[in-house]
Specification:
The protein is mainly alpha-helical and about 240 residues long. The chain contains nine helices and no strands.
Length: about 240
């Protein structure tokens, strides 16, 4: 059961966090600023820059693990970007964002959070498992979970920044549109998503070497994540802007 788009050639995927940052900057330069993927990419770039800075400040107990996980994590997103660009199917978790990326009735913050939903609720658990397997450790081995939790603080900073940037746009909306977007935004929390992702790690880890059950579990996570993405991308504007 295929739960991921075909991997890009290894040479096309970043090897370091700095490589990831450069690739995201390239994507940002290539896309229209209103493109839904571009809206998420800008938020993700900011997160990755904070992770890079934190790695140089010894913020994490095992910086090498976090750096490798960050690269693998980004690679899962970039594989979907490459698949979409090549006209190939993307993972079900990402499909709403790529399908609706040009809908001008959807606000930029919705795209940013829908991307975070796909990346955290689906990709993050896979990146933890792949990194643990590569480094011959486990999710329950210290300090994997403790460092995982530290990333929450960085994400909370970026989420707050994005929501603050959106505030001036909110006052321009009609009362009905403003109420709709407030309801949608209140339904998603990055911290809650990361907590749910860790539950997925605990679910998937025992199945990691059983292809059929592992793929089926991943497919289920991808499908449910995609459903949330569709809800986050509910059009709120009365007409395209």
């Amino acid at each position: 059961m295929g739960t991921e788009p075909a991997p890009a050639p290894v040479a096309q995927l970043p090897n370091t966090v700095q490589d990831v940052i450069q690739r995201m900057k390239q994507i940002d330069a290539e896309l229209d600023a209103r493109d839904g993927v571009a809206c998420f990419n800008r938020m993700y770039l900011r997160v990755t820059e904070l992770v890079a800075a934190s790695l140089t400040e010894n913020y994490f107990a095992d910086g090498a693990f976090i750096e490798r996980m960050d690269v693998i994590f980004a690679g899962l997103y970039l594989r979907n970007v490459d698949a979409a660009k090549a006209g190939k199917p993307v993972n079900a978790a990402w499909q709403p964002l790529f399908d609706l990326r040009d809908d001008r009735r959807i606000l930029s913050i919705q795209y940013a959070l829908a991307g975070m939903n796909a990346h955290i609720n689906h990709d993050l658990a896979l990146s933890v498992i792949l990194t643990c397997k590569e480094r011959r450790t486990t999710p329950d081995t210290a300090p994997v979970h403790a460092d995982y939790l530290k990333v929450n603080e960085l994400l909370a900073r970026v989420e707050a920044e994005v929501r603050a940037e959106f505030e001036p746009e909110l006052v321009k909306l009609t009362t009905a549109d403003a109420e709709s977007i407030k309801h949608i935004l209140s339904s998603f929390s990055i911290e809650a998503a990361r907590d749910a992702s860790w539950v997925s790690v605990q679910l998937l880890w025992p199945q990691r070497d059983i292809p059929f059950t592992y793929d089926r579990a991943c497919a289920g996570i991808a499908a449910s994540t995609g459903t949330v993405g569709r809800l986050l991308l509910t059009p709120v504007l009365s007409a395209p802007s």
